[in-house]
Amino acid sequence: MRVLVVDPDPARAALVAEGLAGVEPLEVRHAPVFKEAEAAAFGPDVIVVASDSPDRDVIESLREATAANPRPVVMFVDRSEPGLAEAAVHAGVSAYVVDGLSAARVRSVLEVAMSRFQLMHGLRQDLEKAKADLASRKTVERAKALLMKERGLDEDAAYRLLRKLSMDTGRPLGAVAADLLAFAGVLKGNGS
């Protein structure tokens, strides 16, 4: 396991490493401040941010980093202001622990955070796929309607024609439908 510990306090960072004793293989790297380029070069399995109290700049940099390169992030903070936990979770933090950094808890918190991250990441991917599938279905329905209107086909015949074009070109049905709609728009003068 590769762990990046971001903490200006080396003693607190050492506490995190101590809590992971016995994990094999393990590589722990310490950085006093979070820098995405350094994190990307190291390629951690999990990022642990420990601090007295997080500020919004740290949370915003984590948001940008997790948007570009999703990975589990755990924050151990000594104290927290109202709203920071929610902001951290929205930034992609998998676990936000206030006043609870102890070597005995580190491993279990990281394991839960990594499991939660995997679950949420899978759910986000499923949601994106569902949105893409819905958009594709809407495009196919619009293309069928266009074929029905312009060629006088019934719904089944319009669908069969789209499916045949898809198979003949080796392209997904949604892509063929989108092309048909785009070409129809150009022919009608909407694509200039």
Summarize the helices and strands and which ones pair or pack:
Elements: E1 2-6, H1 10-19, E2 27-31, H2 36-42, E3 46-51, H3 56-68, E4 73-77, H4 84-90, E5 95-98, H5 103-151, H6 155-169, H7 173-187
Parallel strand pairs: 1-2, 1-3, 3-4, 4-5
Helix pairs in contact: 1-5, 3-4, 5-6, 5-7, 6-7
Can you walk through the features of this model?
With 192 residues, the protein is α/β, with parallel strands linked by helices. It is 60% helix and 13% strand. It has a five-stranded parallel beta sheet with strand order 2-1-3-4-5, sandwiched between helices.
Q: How are strands sequenced across the largest beta sheet?
A: 2-1-3-4-5
**Overall radius of gyration:** 25 Å
Total count of strands: 5
Question: pLDDT below 50 for ≥5 consecutive residues: which ranges?
Answer: none
Apparent shape: elongated
- How much of the sequence is in beta strands? 5-15%
Strand/helix succession: EHEHEHEHEHHH
Number of helices: 7
Question: First CA to last CA: what distance?
Answer: 54 Å
Approximate helicity band: 55-70%
Output the structural class.
alpha/beta
| Largest sheet descriptor | 5 strands, parallel
What's the rounded overall pLDDT mean? Answer: 90
What descriptors fit this protein?
single chain, 192 residues
